[in-house]
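# step 3/5: fold
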Amino acid sequence: MRRTLRPNLINLRKKQETPTSKTQSKSSPSRSSETPTSKSRSNSPRQRQVVEDEEFEDFGEEDFYVQETPKPPPKEERRKKAPAQDTYYFEIFYFSLIVGYILNYYFGKKDNEKIALSWIVTFEELLKRNFTQVGGGGVLLVQESYNIFNLTAKGRMNCLGLQANLELIKRQDLFSRFYAYFTNSTDKLTIDIPLSPETMDQFVFLLIRKRMEKSYQKEKQDIKDFCEVIPNESLPKTFVVLSDSAEVVDEILTKEVLVTITGCEPQLQSIHISDQNPFNPVHKKSMRVVLTLPDEKNMESLDLLLKMCFFIVDLLPQITLSKMAKDKIQKKRLELVKQGEKLTHQQRQEAAQQRKLEKMQKEKEKVLTLSAEAQAKYEEKEQRKLLRKRQMKFKVYQ
């Protein structure tokens, strides 16, 4: 039976061109010179089979199959196999960030120092006119940190001194600087003036921006306990005034003060006057004024507000309240004192009850360690105590 062969044509051509095929053609010249009779004889089926077998004896079994071309690897593998390129994007980014932080640290620190220096240079003369001693040890302004500066002054009528605190934006910190930029934070000047005990009567006064009222009232106990909103149409709409007496508001918000507040509205944040000082327990009566610091070029815009502070300090001794207003203020303070005493008494009772319970618990634990006879004696003793107490109560009721 004849065998069917399906050789790969490409592989056949390659095999025919190999040196072995050439040597075979050279070594068998007799085949090419065969006579026609021999050719005719080879045309028999058996001879053809032998010839075909000789022609393909050099080919392996794999040469008769079509070889599939390999598929290209997927993109992910090609990316992984690709040679790594030297990229320094992260290194450049971090290096730039570090350099920027260092530069901002240096220039931010210098900016804060310029603002503080501009403030003291602008108002040094005004402070020296109102106080006999400004600063201490030959230093006017004390730097506590890169963004906080303090100044103290002494020697003035109607007050015990002055302490000014400049709380500036942390310009030396790059992230704080960005935060301040996006939250519209500003530099702040806080002026604390402890007042003499005889300077003012008992009252509380607060002038503050409306957006700050609720949070400030929660923080300060004197505002929370005594004050209520007092309507005043002369004030700008951005402000609200709270006090424990309407007379106090009329006495403090004079024409001069109202003109200054209206003209310097952007720089003023709050004015807090109280006989229940929440800032310093040493001095019960005090005044605190919080201002927004402008830039170093516009520092003179605070001149009127600082003069207004000293004007109010001299105005406080002149405030005379009516008997009705004084009685109302005094009544609120007495109620607060009673509430405090009641709370203190309640706390003491709770502490005594807690101590009693702890003592009973210790006795019970001690009894459990005793023998059965000792426990019985202890219970008899406790029952006698209870009977005596009941007899005493019965006698009292009789």
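# step 4/5: annotate
The longest helix spans residues 323-368.
# step 5/5: archive (pending)
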